[in-house]
Design brief:
This protein is an all-alpha fold. Among the domains are: about 60 residues; about 100 residues, Annexin V, domain 1, CATH 1.10.220. It has 11 helices and no strands. Helix 7 packs across helix 9 and helix 9 crosses helix 11. The N and C termini lie far apart (about 160 Å).
């Protein structure tokens, strides 16, 4: 009987008050969330232009800008101050820029290959220049050794020989010297003409003389090394190879002639 009375006894008034307050708070929060959801829906659907009106205020606010209604591309472009009328135009410009980038990359690759080819040609011509300078040094030493080596005749003997040389032989030698000088002058005149031309034009003119590569070599040898190199740089690589080989053959023929003369005079 005592237990039944205890069970039927009224609850504590304080506990009922706390439960009532919690229930009321939850109801208020639920009502607020419902109204916020309704408000977000109205904004998202742009009812009464509400979303359009709020867009300038909350378009840059994270999370809140998610409730804004979707707008056309031209509106977005105007807001961001893009220099395009619509997305399609922007995509077309991007494609054009990508095409230009590809073209520039191809052009850069072509330039890189051309630079490598020119560098290889410069290296090859540098070898030719070094060989030519070495050849000149050998000629200078040979000239000195012929006259001033320990077994050479006295200088007076050279003077006496040239004074007593046979007149007919002297005349023939003189005639050959004049012809050689005239021939050399002709080559030098043509070399001087080529010097005034652009290297590319001069190279084309010399390449036309395929029947007489030796004559082309003699013209190039009348030029300074840098002038000849500039012209040869514009020539076809195969023709340059023929020119260099012919110059080498001319050197060997010259040395063989000198050696034969020395053996004949011994």
């Amino acid at each position: 009987m005592a237990k039944k009375d205890k069970k039927d006894a009224p609850a504590n008034p304080d506990e009922e008050s706390v439960i009532s307050k919690i229930g009321t708070g939850l109801m208020v929060i639920l009502i607020i969330l419902v109204w916020l959801a309704i408000f977000a829906l109205l904004v998202k659907m742009d009812v009464g232009g509400m979303g359009t009106a709020l867009r300038p205020l909350i378009k840059d606010v994270p999370i809140l800008n998610l409730i804004l209604p979707d707008v056309p591309d031209d509106v977005l472009i105007n807001e961001e101050n893009y220099p395009y009328k619509n997305i399609k135009e922007a995509v077309e410009v991007i494609k054009e820029l990508e095409a230009k980038v590809d073209a520039l990359e191809d052009e850069n690759g072509s330039y890189a290959r051309k630079i490598l080819e020119l560098q290889a040609e410069v290296d090859r011509l540098r070898v030719y220049e070094e060989e030519y300078e070495a050849f000149e040094e050998r000629v200078r030493r040979f000239d000195i050794n012929v006259v001033y080596n320990s077994q050479a005749p006295e200088i007076e003997e050279y003077k006496k020989y040239y004074e007593e040389i046979n007149p007919e032989t002297a005349a023939e030698i003189y005639r050959q010297v004049l012809e050689q000088l005239a021939y050399d002058d002709s080559i030098k005149q043509k070399a001087n003409i080529l010097k005034t031309m652009k290297p590319g034009n001069a190279a084309k003119a010399l390449e036309e003389m395929t029947a007489d590569v030796e004559y082309t070599c003699k013209i190039l040898l009348c030029l300074k090394v840098d002038e000849a190199a500039a012209i040869m740089d514009k020539m076809d690589t195969l023709f340059v190879a023929r020119v260099v080989q012919t110059m080498h053959d001319m050197d060997e023929a010259w040395y063989e002639q000198i050696q034969a003369n020395l053996l004949q005079n011994q």
